[in-house]
Amino acid sequence: MAGYLARTARVSTCSLRATYSSSVVRTASLSTSAVARASSTDAKDPQLGDYPDLPPINLQTRRYDPRWWDPQEKRNFGETLHEQDDVLGVWAPDVHKTPAFSALLQILTAAGGFGAFAAVIYLSFPGRPANPRTYPREGLATELGSELVAAAKEGAFDGGEDGEEDEAEEDDE
């Protein structure tokens, strides 16, 4: 049992050293405002008391090692948790390594691909399977009683045939 604990402690210190890679430290040290930069250089948080002030390293950035005591959480038995462990754990929102420009380019490429596919389908889709119906003698105006009842010629509808404009003029007076 003592050998197991000693080996676990040795793996724990080795894995902690391995997690302090330069990209992780640079990512952890980035901040967006002067207030955040000023607070990162301040002394230890007084509400922590004697709890260790650990660097904010996301557990997703740790390498997988089958010797972890908890391989899913990537931590060892007895390892001190960070104060913000719920935000820095593997179940927290993902840490993205894709630059914003690359992500935008990927989204625009996908949208362009979908648009090109839709254009090909639209242009290759055949027309109507049959011609539109045509009526002789001005759309059968005399047979149906008047031109208002007859079938409209293609492109002949202008809205004024129904008397819509006449009603609008009468309301204005």
TrEMBL record:
Keyword entries, A-Z: Membrane, Transmembrane, Transmembrane helix
Acidic residues composition-biased segments: 159-173
Region of interest: Disordered: 153-173
Residues spanning the membrane: 103-125
GO cellular component, one term: mitochondrion
Highest taxon of source: Eukaryota
Keyword Transmembrane helix attached: yes
Any Pfam family matching the protein: NDUF_B8
Claim: Mitochondrion is one of the keywords in the record: no
Protein name listed in UniProt: Uncharacterized protein
